[in-house]
Amino acid sequence: MTVNANPNIPEEVRAVAADGTQLRYALMEMARDMDDVIALGRGDPDLDTPPHIVEAAKSAIRDGRVNPTPVKGMDELRKAIAERMRAVNGLPVAAENVMITTGGQEGLFLAIQALIDPGDEILVPDPRYSSYDDAIRRAGGTMVSVPTNREDSFNLEAEAVEAAITPASKALLIVTPSNPTAGIVTEDRLRAIADVCIRHNLIVIVDEIYGKIVFPPWRHFSIGSLPGMAERTITLDAFSKTYAMTGWRCGYAAAPVDVIEAMARVKQVTTGPVATVSQWAGLAAITGPQDCVADYLKIYTERRGALLDGLDRMGFAYGEPRGGLFVWADCSSTGIHATELSYLLLKEGRVLIFPGTAFGDAWREYLRITMLEPIETLKTAVARMLPVLERYRLPPPQND
Amino acid sequence: MQTPTTLSRPLAQRVAGLHDPRAPSATATALPASVIDAACAALDRGETHYTDRPGIPEFRAWVADHLRERYKIKIDPAEVTITCGSTEARFVCLTLLAPPASAVLCPGDSSPIRGALHLVGAKIVDAIQDDISLLYISPDVYRETSTELLRRAEETDWWIIYDLSLAKTDPPFHPARNPKLASRVVTINSLSASMPGWRLGWMAGSEMALRLRAGKQAITICTTAVSQWAGLEWVRTQL
Most buried pick, A147, A180, A350, B67, via CB within 10 A? Predict the structure, then answer.
C-alpha cells in the first residue's frame, strides 16, 4: 500500500504527504473547516498557563517593562534558568551558558545553524519530530536515522548510535522524552551513549522540552550532567509544555559559552530577542511556585490511563508511554495505512490524529495521539473512532 | 563547579561571518491604555496557546485591508503571515527566495540583510548583473533609484522584497501595483518603532506566500499570542 496510489486520500493531503510537517498542517487545516472536531493532533496543552505567571506578565505590561532585551535574553531570566538547571538537572552552567529562544523549536534551529556545516552528518533517532528536518536541511547537513523500536519502548541504544557513526558524523540529537514516541532515554542508556560520544568526539544536542512530564517510576535524566559531557552538550528546553505556555514562545538553551555566543549571532539575524513580556512570564514560571507542574502531571497521568484503555479496546499496541504528551500507537491491526486512517478518522469520526508518516517515512503503521483533552473528551474520541475502525478494518491475512 | 566555555569541536564556519549582537537600543514610549488593556484582556481570556500558524485572523485581515487602503494593492489575508518582528520576516524571505551563490540587488542600505544573506551564501550587489535573484528595496530609495530597476524587473524573474519596516518615508506607492510584478512582491513591515519589545511584524503577498508561511513555522511555529493581540489594538487605534 502506498500513499500516492490510494484514491481515498484527498489531493490536499496527497500533495504534502512526503513532507511530515506540511502533512500535519494540511490535516489541521482540514479539521479547521469541520464542525465539532476533537483535536488530538497538535502538541498544544489545553490547560491554562498558571495564574501567577499570567499575573506577572500583566504586571510587566502595566508597569511598562516591555522594552527590548539583549538578544540572549534578560539577565535575571538567564541567571534563574542556570540556577534551576544546576539544581534540578545537575548541569554545570552559569548565566553565561544560557540564552533565551523563541520557543524550543527556534533553539534547535539556532543550534543546528551554529554547529552544522554542509556535509556534516547529524544522527537523529527514528521516528522524529519532522520540524527538525528543515533546520538540518538549511544548514546543509545530512540527517542519519538511528532506529528505535516499540519492543524497547523506543529507548535509544548506544550500540545503534555507534553503528550509525561515520567520519562525517558531527552531532547526535536526542529527544527525551520523545516526540512522537513518548519513550524516554533512560539513565543507563544515556551513560552508555555518553561514552560513545566522548569516544567519537560527537556533539550532543538534547531536547528536553518534555523533561518535566515523566510518568513515575520513570525519571528524566540530563546527559549534559555526566562527566566529560558539558563541553559537548547543548541542552534545549522551553516553558511551553511544562507550564502550558505554548503561545508565549519562550524557550532556552544551555551550552558552552562559545556556542551561546554563536547561537546569539544567528538569532540576531533570525528573529531578534524574545518578546519581553514572555520573558517576564518565563521568569515567574521558573522562580514561582511549582505546584502547577505536579498538578499537570497528575492530570496527564489520569488521561494517559483513559487513552490507553481506549487503545486497548481498538486493538492498538503501543510502547509504554513514559513521558511527554503523546501515545505512539501501532495501528497495524487495522490493515490501513496510517495516512489514510488519519484521514478517515477525521472525515468520518471527527477526530484529528497525526499519522506516523508525519514523523518518518517508515511509520505507516503508527499514529501519534495527544492526551491534551479532558478525560471525557478522550472517551468521546474513542467512541467516535471505534465504529470507523470497524467499518474499514481489514480482515487479518489467512494462513494457508 | 567548572562551567563549559568552549565546545569540544569547531563551530560551523558560517558563524564566523556574523557580527556579535547589538545591545538593545530601541526604547518604546508608553503604550496607550487601550493597548495595555487589550493585552491584559487577551491574557485574561486565555490567549496563551499557539495561535494559527500564520497569525490571528483579525491581524492578518487588518494587514490586508491596510495594504489595500494605503497602497492600493490587493492582498488576500491568507497571503499574510505575522512574524516575530521584521527580522524574522526578512530572514524567512531572504533564505527562501535568494538561492545560494545568487546575487541580491540592494540599491540602498544593505545592513538589514547582510547577516541573513551570509547564512544563505548569497551576495549583495548594487548594480544589475546576470545572476540576480532578488531585488531588495525600501521606500527610501524607491523614487530615486528604483524606478529603472523595477522596469528591469518586469523583464526578469526577480523576487522583490519591499521593506517598509525601517523606512524613514512612506510614499503611497508600491511595486505590487504593477500587475506584471505583483505575484513576485513580498511586503514586509513591523511595529518595531512603536512596540519594539513585543516582536511583531508581518510579511504579505506573492505567489510564494504559503511557502514563506511554512518557512516561518519551521523556525518559531507562530508569533507570541499576546503580542499579536496587543499589536492588533495598536494598529486599529493608532494608525
Answer: A180
